[in-house]
Each structure stands twice: as C-alpha cells, then as structure tokens.
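Quick one, tokens below. Sequence please?
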C-alpha cells in the first residue's frame, strides 16, 4: 500500500462534530461573513436550482435564507462549501472552534507517515475547511502528515471518475491506494476506479450494509 485517501465525516472525525458544532456555527454567522464573491456564486446556484425544478427561497440581495435552505438540504454546493469554509476560518482564528478527530487518528497519521505512505483527504467540505480542521486539533497540527486535499471541485464523491483523477495525483497504481469512508456509495465508486476500500464503522455513524467492502472500527486495523 502506497497511498491512503480519507473521508472526514464519520471517518477521521465524529459526525456529531460536523452536525452539532460546525454546521450550527456556520448557520449562525452567515450574514457577517458573506461577501460579493459568495453572493455571485450563490446566485448562479440559485438559478440552477430553479432550472432543475427545486423550490428555493426567493432570491434576495443578502441571500441568508437561501444559504440556510442549502444547509437544510445538506447540499454539496461548491458555493455553499466555500462560504462555510470562510465562516469556519473566522471561528478557528478566534478560538471559538477547534478541530476534532477520533483518538486513533493522530497515532495512525504518524505511523503511516513514518512508513512513507502518501495520505490525502477527500471531503465535500472545502479544502480550506479541511486544512482548518486538521491544523487545530487537541493533538496539535496534523496537516504535517497530509500531502493533499480534494473537495467538490474534483467531482462528486459517488462518481468513479473523481477517484480516477485523484489516483493520478498519487502517482501510483490505483490498486496501491486505500480509500476509507463511512458511505458505501463512495466506496463503490472508488472500487470501480481500481482503489482498495474499507468501510469505517464509527460511533454515531449511520448504519450501512458493507456489501463486499471490508469494515474497520479503528485506523489501528490499517497496517503499513
């Protein structure tokens, strides 16, 4: 194994941290962080939603209601994810937020790094949000163990082509890369691209039928 690709929510980080801490913080601080660039991107997203037959709130010059609607829908909108990343940046910088990972994550990162394994992240959260989370954990800055970050700009996490693109960045054969996630549809897509896969079964995760994917409950089960 030469590379490990990691999901965040339910894999490195408890789902409760995302839904009970990060999302509420972003929701509460939209109006003071939204800028002209965000509004332009959100307007394009709003127009696309209308074309696709959705029923978002009416557009306003400061579209807080639309942003909240996107959050309620748990949409993987790049415009939303970029805005959330900006909001969380202010929270991390002020000390209101600190990244959270499972207990086994820091030691596993260090062990994999020592073994020369290329470790990267693939999450629907923006690259900025990913870096902020791993740089501010109670175990210190974990970004020193990470070689790359991928988000929705790479492609949907449920499409094999996204993993083909990511696999090229590793500069090794797809079969030498292990993808860990708590979502079977993502694992199916990664498997189609040729990657190895394992389903993370963590406290608080939504139950999933693993199918043909291996299951793990700790990164300690992943060898070097």
């Amino acid at each position: 194994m030469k590379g490990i690709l990691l999901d965040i929510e339910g894999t490195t980080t408890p789902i409760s941290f995302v839904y009970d801490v990060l999302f509420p913080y972003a929701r509460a601080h939209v109006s003071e962080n939204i800028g002209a660039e965000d509004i332009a991107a959100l307007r394009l997203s709003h127009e696309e939603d209308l074309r696709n037959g959705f029923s978002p709130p009416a557009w306003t010059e400061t579209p807080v209601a639309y942003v909240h609607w996107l959050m309620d829908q748990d949409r993987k909108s790049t415009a939303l994810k970029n805005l959330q990343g900006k909001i969380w940046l202010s929270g991390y910088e002020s000390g209101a937020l600190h990244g959270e990972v499972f207990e086994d994550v820091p030691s596993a990162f260090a062990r994999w790094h020592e073994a020369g394994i290329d470790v990267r992240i693939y999450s629907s959260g923006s690259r900025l949000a990913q870096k902020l989370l791993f740089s501010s954990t109670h175990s210190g800055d974990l970004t020193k163990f990470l070689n790359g970050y991928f988000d929705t700009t790479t492609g949907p996490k449920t499409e094999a082509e996204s993993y083909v693109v990511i696999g090229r960045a590793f500069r090794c054969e797809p079969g030498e890369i292990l993808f860990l996630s708590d979502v079977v549809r993502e694992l199916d897509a990664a498997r189609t691209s040729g990657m190895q896969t394992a389903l993370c079964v963590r406290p608080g995760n939504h139950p999933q039928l693993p199918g043909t994917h291996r299951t793990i409950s700790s990164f300690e089960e992943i060898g070097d």
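The two ends are 7 Å apart (CA to CA). Helices lie at 15-28, 36-51, 64-72, 78-94, 105-114, 127-135, 160-170, 184-192.
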